[in-house]
Design goal:
Helix content is 47%, strand content 15%. It has 97 residues and is of the alpha+beta class. The mean pLDDT is 80.
């Protein structure tokens, strides 16, 4: 066991989140699970249990102005928006835009 704790496979994470394993692999590749890694390029993903626990925590409310609170988005919606933003950033850095 490492300092980060137990590692999970995409299938195990998918079962806990009730998503498809392919979705979890996309989450790994796009950074939704920031500490997920592949020991060998193109190999199986390993996701630290701490990343999953952090992902499952309810989002905090955001105070946008004194006394005005922004309601949190659903985890899935936020994760998909984050992934889209990362893809746009990657394409912009490559000059694909």
């Amino acid at each position: 066991m490492s300092r980060m704790g137990k590692f999970l496979t995409p299938k195990q994470v998918a079962e806990r989140l009730q998503l498809a394993p392919s979705t979890i692999r996309i989450y790994c590749a796009t950074g939704v699970f920031p500490n997920a890694f592949q020991a060998v390029k193109g190999g199986a993903w390993r996701i630290p249990e701490s990343d999953l626990e952090r992902h499952q925590q309810p989002p905090e409310r955001l105070e946008v102005a004194p006394g005005i609170w922004l309601a949190p988005r659903s985890r899935r919606s936020q994760a998909m928006q984050d992934a889209a933003a990362r893809r746009r950033l990657i394409h912009a850095r490559r000059g694909d835009v």
